[in-house]
Each structure stands twice: as structure tokens, then as C-alpha cells.
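Board notes (copied after class):
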Amino acid sequence: MLKVLYMTNSALPNLALLDHLQTGLPVEVCGVVEEITGKTERVGQLFRKKSILKRLDIAAFRLLHRLLPDRAVYDSGSTTAKDIPWLKTLDINDQEVLSFIEKQTPDLVLLKGVSIISGEIIEAAGGNIINIHSGWLPDYRGVQCGTWPLVNNELDKIGITFHFVDEGLDTGKVVFREKLERSKLMKLGRLTFHHQIGCQQFRMIVNSLEQFLQAYRVGKYSTYNQPSKPAKPYSFLGLTDYLKAMHNLSRYKKQG
């Protein structure tokens, strides 16, 4: 059985994915590393190197995002399982994390939602680290990559990607990709599409995990390199981005 170590942050969907790793999949979860981000650091990530107008734009979207009804449901019941070694850390590249990985001796490390991994961590895992990215690579690197394709009117590039991890941001060799079905796009709500895309991506990841893990366990998978000059990474959405995405989705649905 494949020994998997899961590295994630404290976001509910990412923690909920652990439940599915523990249920009915051909793996043994040998450890969890949870990256904890303080409130000050989260604010810094949102607004770092942004103009005053862009900061206001992002803040306005964050407020709207909180006010909108969130119908996304993420099954979660065992994310605090006591029988799994669990390390919480402020720094995903800390020496404590390195020692934890070496102690658990995983066959594979899965990432979801953590900071960029150092070369030392990659080496400790023998290069066997796969990032589960909620976006279509190589076009959409960074964050909130389910909604950015709507902003850019590229609705055929909403999807998920599993890729090997290198020291870049979402730049490693791609192992698996899947696009959101057109029928699902047509059902997205006019105001709640951002929540709903996240939920759809979560379901796609869950549905793809078993197939991927079985292929990985027996070595029957293929990879391909991303471009040597990767596309720009996307940052946090602003209200103007959200309104543009809403307009593009509405026009797409009208075209049938």
C-alpha cells in the first residue's frame, strides 16, 4: 500500500480532502503537515506590492465574498484524526518539517494550498511530491485560478492539475489535468459562481484521486514539461475582476 504524507493549510476544503484520502483509497496516510498562517500574514499576502486602488479593489471583493451565500459543501469528519501523526507549523520549510518527513518515510507527498516548497524538502521526499492545483496549467498559475479564466473570458480553461513539485510556483511536470464540463459551467449562479467553481474543483479532485494514486503506485503514468518561460502567476481577485467574470459568464450562457 502506498504511504502518503499530506501537506496542506488550514482551509476547510483542503483539510476535508484528507477524509477522502483515508476512505476507500489504496493508500496509508502516514502523516499530515498543516501550515498555519496568522491573520497579519494573511493580510500581508493579500496586499503585498499592491497599489492603494488595487488594495481597495481586493478588499471590496473579500467583503462581497463573505456576504454572498456559500452553498459549497465539503464533507469533513475526520480531519482531526488522532491516529495520524500531525505537525502544525508556521513555516512549511522549517527544519522540523524536514525531520518529520524523514521520520515518516512516505512513498509520496501530496500538497494542497501550501507555500512554495524548498529544495531541501523536495530532496527529503526523494522528489516524490505532487501538488494538487486548482487551476489549468500551464495557463493559470497562482491563486483563485478557478475564477481567473472567467475574468479573461477563457471558460474552457477552468480545471484542475496534478503536477510534480519543483522550486518554482506551479511549474513542475504535469501528471494529470481535467477541465470543468460545459454542462457544469451552464449551471453556475450569476452571483455565486466563485463559490460554486471551488466546489466543483473539489469534487473533480476527489473523483480523480483514486485513478491517479493507483497509476502512481504501479508507475503507469506519463508526464509532460511545462514551458520554460511560464505564464505569469495570478494573484488575488478584486471586485472589478469579479464583475468582469460575472459579465463574461452571463454572455457565455446566453450564447448557449
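Comment from the instructor: The chain has one domain: 2-255. Strands lie at 2-9, 27-35, 86-89, 108-112, 129-133, 141-142, 159-164, 174-179, 233-234.
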